[in-house]
Amino acid sequence: MSPRRIIPASAAVLALALGVAACGGSGNGGSSTTSSSAPASGSASSAAIKKNDANAKTTITVGSKNFTEQKVLGEVYAQAFQAAGYTVKTALNLGDEKTALKAVKDGQISGYPEYTGTALLSFLDVPAAKLPSDPTQAYDQVKAGMAKEGIEAFPPTPFTSSNEVGLLKPKAEKLGVTKISDLKPKAGQLTLYGSPECRTRRDCLLGLEQVYGLKFKKFVPVNIDQRHEVLKSGQADVSIVFTTDPQIKRDNEVLLEDDKGMFPPYNSTFLMKQSVASSAGPDLAKTIDLVNKNLTADVMQELNARVDLDKDTPQQAAQAYLKQFKLIP
Amino acid sequence: MTLAVLGQLGDAIDFIFDKREGPGGAQVGGDQLLPLLREHLLITIVAVAIATAIALPIGTWLGHSKRGSFLVVSITNAGRAVPSLGVVFLFFAVLGAGFFNITLALILLAIPPILLNAYAGVRSVDPEAVDAATGMGFTGSQVLRKVELPLALPLIFGGIKTSTVNVIATATLGPEAGVVTLGDPIINPSSYGDAGRLGAAILVALLAILAEVGLSAVQRRLTPQGVKLSGQAAPRRRLLAISRRRIAPTS
């Protein structure tokens, strides 16, 4: 229960994770220890970004919203565009999605990564209850909707940053649950924590009640920043977390499979003004595709972990990613 | 319906009176607001009552003994600088999320104005009145209860009113730590819509006004007739004194 007991434990897990990763890394001698700790899977499969000097006349200003994952993604795209020969500026930390979209429309930035679910909810006014649960359908809807506003939505990342039902591994093993529907006979004894809006949303508590028929002992709304703390401290049996949260690995949490496909997808799609996108030429889309290819939930979790838990800068994390997958030399 | 002419405001008023399906898919507004309202009122009353029970005796006693002005001023200033949401998160690890945590944050918010006003109210009672009472054989506690407190009542109530309004406004952060108050529609437009956000804000503002008016009525009830009269007489006398002084140099 005491948070103090948790610190040495998580430090040990962290040291272990770094140690294992350092062993598994492909031996970039001389670089910092953290730069070799990205998951090695798939590193051989991607081609490097080709530099085209003709692109230098195009200036791309990459933006991002104001939280870790966004800043890392912003840096990843910025460094990738630079590698492709574009002249790149960054304006990371723009605030919320409305601010970022306005910056794109006003031409302050050329583009920024946005989540399909967020774009549907916030830009295209799709009610939370009507979000599609299929990632492709969600992207197609965003692409069509944003095109009407003169904004191009590039094909999305493999990772999604959705809501997930998370709990500590020992608890999951004790309860014997791997899927959300496994919770049904046990929910009556479990306390669920989630963000304040969760209580009244069909893509959260309301859906768990209606789609899965779960009746939890209690639902406690808490500030979204507390979503892992409440599990660690034992206040929550089950908590609503996000797919790419770095704490999932570090705190030994498991995510229950959404076997009824209730949580809408939040894949990241790069949004850019159509006029800017067309003047940038074909290398732009190619670069975005190369970058997105390896951005799986595992990789994104690791990149977030480096910034949030290891205190790397987003630049460092982004560079490590691009190097790890041989996108840049 | 007919309220549509009022645009967004009409929609917000409609939200207050009629249940609807919010953008999150839940039934929101109308009678669904009642549990939120009840929780909001309950936590406000508990927090202000406890804060008053703590701050009023301390403030009046310090004012009576004419000591501790440094203490009162420091506590008040420090207390006012502490953000309530910060307090909630600070105690999160110890108290967890829930009624107790939010109540504690609201109590800490409510104490400074009550403490300062009780202190200042008692402290600023006319020393002649206190001397007269002492001369008539009043004990210390009699002076406090029968002279200082009644005369300090307007300021004391000013403090309680300020705190109550602050607490009503700040109780909107309840849903950040387990207490579903009227803040829920305000911080969650994605499940209540803009009408819900505005509607709940209107309700909170109305509550604050009602509390102010209600407490003023209680204050009038509690103020002794003599204090009321002297309160009315004082400005007139001062007005005369000023006009006499103004006339004096010219004549």
List keywords for this structure.
heterodimer; A: 329 residues; alpha/beta; D-Maltodextrin-Binding Protein, domain 2; five-stranded mixed β-sheet; three-stranded antiparallel β-sheet; 40% helix; B: 251 residues; mainly alpha; MetI-like fold; 11 helices; elongated; disordered C terminus
Q: What form of chain B results from the Cα inertia axes?
A: elongated
The helix/strand class of chain B is mainly alpha
* Largest sheet features of chain A: 5 strands, mixed
* Assembly of the depicted chains: heterodimer
Domains counted in the coordinates of chain B: how many? 1
* Sheet/helix structural class of chain A: alpha/beta
Name the average pLDDT of chain B.
87
N-C termini distance of chain B = 70 Å
Largest interface (CB < 8 Å): A-B, 26 and 25 residues
Q: How would you characterize the largest beta sheet of chain B?
A: 2 strands, antiparallel
Using the alpha-carbon principal axes, give the shape of chain A: globular
Strand order of the largest sheet of chain A: 7-6-8-5-9
Give the CATH class of the largest domain in chain A.
Alpha Beta
List segments of chain A where confidence is low: pLDDT < 50 over at least 5 consecutive residues. Answer: 1-45
CATH class of chain B: Mainly Alpha
Report the CATH superfamily of the largest domain in chain A.
Answer: Periplasmic binding protein-like II
Number of domains of chain A: 2
Helices of chain A, by number, come to 13
Residue share in helix of chain B: over 70%
